[in-house]
Request: fold
Amino acid sequence: MTTDQPPIDGRMDRHTPEGITLSLLPVGPAPRLWAYLIDQCVVLGLIFVLAVFLVSNDAGQGVFLLTLFFLWWGYPIVWESFGGRTPGKRALKLRVVRVDGQPIGWKEAFLRGLMLTADFLPFLFMTGLVSMLFTPGFRRLGDLAAGTLVIQDEVVTEPEIPHLLEPESSPIPLLAHEQRSLMDLAERSDHISTERLEELGDIAAPYTGLRGKASVNRLRSIAAGLLK
Amino acid sequence: MKQRTFEKLHRSLWEQSEELVEGGGIADPLNLPSLHRRLCHSLSLARSRGYAPSLVQRLHHLANRSHARFYGTPGEAQAVLRTWISSEFPCRVRSMWPFLLASLVAFLGPALIAGIAVHLNPSLSDSIMGPGATDHLKSMFAPGSERIGRQGTENDLQMFGFYIWNNVSILFRTMATGVFLGVPSLLAIGFNGTHLGTAFSVMFDSPENRAPFFAFVATHSALELTAIVVGGAASLRLGWAILRSGRRSRMDSFRQASVQSLPVMGGASLMMAGAAFLEAFWSANATIEPTVRIGVGICLWALVLGYFALAGRFRAA
Reply:
């Protein structure tokens, strides 16, 4: 994650007047399809329940068709107007934002909702899929019309403090990105398999002077030393 | 500086920012500019000093939200609804007059051709509207029935629901498919026109149906037919923006056209919903004198055309 290389994960960077870089991570078709399916299940479930209660008489049918209209077209528009997330998107931690990263309003939501029809054509969102494949940031026609992106909501992980042996200092001065890699390893070492950790320890042998597990422990001690 | 010392130094700053970003706290919003600047600075420091990714990620998340709060657009301008209805909608419609004209031709052309053809050769109407449709249409507008324009016993609310679900959805689809260079929209408008021309012609040539039919359509047609033409114009505008993007990229041109068409698309939808209301609760009511309904219909037509011709022209700058 050195800053001098272009990102390889599709991140979109914005440079702000404060001189920092903020990034957004647009998401591709697959998670968005899952979110859509969840929403569709909710909508169809509601429609089914309404149908059971309302279709028995004439006036009820009128009310049913009215609610059908507002559910069908209004569901994504209303949810996305407030916070940019439908329940399906919330479940998959997705969010709709404007291309500049700002929250969307009802205008964007309306255009997205309207264009959903065009994206669906000729069948099963083929137009939307093709559009996502050929635009930077996976944007369907609705996104292009409204100037929006669907991004991955950032998940903040609680820092896992390397539970430590004892802090050591680094044998040589470290550059910032080297230090960052070391901290990254220390924070994630609980989620990496023992075998892989040993391999990593061997790679670091010239630096730590040890091999395997002992080398990793040394790295973690140095990380602890960087921390406090 | 060790990371822990850094965290200790900045903890209160981050907590205040968090509180401001989440809203609802006791933090003073006037502090946002300075807090945001200091927060960005601390993120910058954390990055350049190679602190733990978890810390950088946490600050990045906070800075992202703080940025949105700081640079985000304030609430919409006041009286959005009023300016939209009183000037933005009609002005936008006038400004897209070439598309309005194209939409009108695409609608009235097929309507006239179908109408004249059916007038000369009445057997054509079944081939246009489907077998048996002519008789069905005539039975719907048979003189003496209490609710005209319907098959039988449907009540007003039921028809209102149906008109909203059916007609407004069709309008939405027509407008959205404008993105395919306007071709599906043109077909939809032409299809509508053909049916309309046929029905008018059949009803005009059948003396007993003539009065009930025209009394039925007079009022809501003022909103419904204009909504079809205006909505069609908005969709043609979308298609044209992609076809002839001028000096913009096609994506950019499409984006601009959608934003500019939005008030028109919303307005057309409102008109369509209004037409559904009139069609369900007013047009079909045979207890109101046909002359009254035709009179109201003419007034509404004048009102709608006057609205599009004049509204928003004289607003104070």
Summary: The beta strands of chain A are 12-15, 21-24, 94-98, 148-152. The mean pLDDT of chain A is 87. Chain A touches chain B through 59 residues (CB under 8 Å).
